[in-house]
């Protein structure tokens, strides 16, 4: 296979791969806007994240905090196989890089979540609390780059 045909083959496969994911809305209520599977996952992450932020410094809640981190890591795994809505607005040749960057950003989130998990397991609530700030940075960068500007 020549480099050129390999390139087009890769592009074609990637386009087919994202076709089924990028715009599969799950409709909840006709009065509401359509909610994507990724938004559903992000909402799940948000609920766990908010609770975690409140209790991460409290060593008596470490068991529950570890469960919350577990939920967030599950979301990261599921979200890796979904593509942001914004993907559909891009030119085909931009999509591979866009989705690769999106997954990389999720990878960064997972690294921090793993570090929080390690700190909590060691009973080091001071480190776990500091790491929450890093999560926020990765979230902000992820949304800036991968959410459509008109999304909530
Ligand atoms: C602590 C981490 C994070 C939290 C708590 C969070 C939370 C949220 C929330 C609440 C929404 C709106 C959901 C809705 O409209 O119903 C959202 C959407 C979104 N988030 Fe996150 N997020 C996090 C990290 C990230 C990261 C790291 C990325 C990128 C790699 C990302 C990409 C997106 C995208 C693309 C959407 C729009 C959904 C779509 O396109 O279908 N988020 N997020």
Which cofactors or ions or other ligands sit in this model?
protoporphyrin IX containing FE
Mean pLDDT: 86
Tally of DSSP helical segments:
5
Enumerate the strands of the largest sheet in spatial order, edge to edge or round the barrel. Answer: 1-2
Shape by Cα distribution: elongated
The name of the CATH superfamily reads Cytochrome c/b562
Number of structurally distinct domains: 1
- What is the CATH level 1 assignment? Mainly Alpha
> How big is the Rg?
18 Å
Listing every helix as H and every strand as E from the N terminus to the C terminus, the arrangement reads HEEHHHH
What does this structure look like?
This protein is an all-alpha fold. The protein has one domain (31-146): Four Helix Bundle (Hemerythrin (Met), subunit A) (Up-down Bundle), CATH 1.20.120. Helix content is 72%, strand content 3%. It contains 5 helices and 2 strands; from the N terminus they run αββαααα. The protein has helices at residues 3-22, 37-55, 62-80, 92-121, 125-146, and strands at 25-26, 35-36. Strand 1 and strand 2 (35-36) form a beta hairpin. The site of protoporphyrin IX containing FE has 25 residues, from strand 2, helix 2, helix 4 and helix 5.
In terms of topology, how is this protein built?
Elements lengths: L2 H20 L2 E2 L8 E2 H19 L6 H19 L11 H30 L3 H22 L6
Antiparallel strand pairs: 1-2
The structure holds protoporphyrin IX containing FE.
Protoporphyrin IX containing FE (HEM) binds next to β2, α2, α4 and α5.
């Amino acid at each position: 296979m020549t480099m050129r045909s390999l390139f087009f083959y890769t592009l074609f496969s990637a386009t087919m791969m994202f076709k089924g994911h990028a715009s599969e809305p799950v409709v909840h209520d006709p009065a509401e806007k359509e909610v994507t599977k990724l938004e559903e996952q992000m909402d799940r992450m948000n609920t766990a994240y908010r609770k975690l932020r409140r209790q991460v410094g409290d060593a008596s809640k470490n068991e529950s905090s570890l469960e919350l981190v577990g939920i967030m890591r599950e979301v990261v795994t599921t979200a890796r196989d979904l593509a942001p809505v914004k993907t559909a607005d891009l030119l085909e040749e931009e999509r591979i890089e866009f989705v690769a960057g999106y997954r990389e950003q999720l990878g960064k989130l997972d690294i921090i979540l793993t570090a929080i998990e390690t700190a909590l397991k060691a009973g080091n609530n001071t480190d776990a609390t500091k790491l929450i700030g890093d999560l926020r940075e990765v979230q902000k960068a992820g949304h800036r780059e991968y959410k459509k500007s008109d999304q909530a």
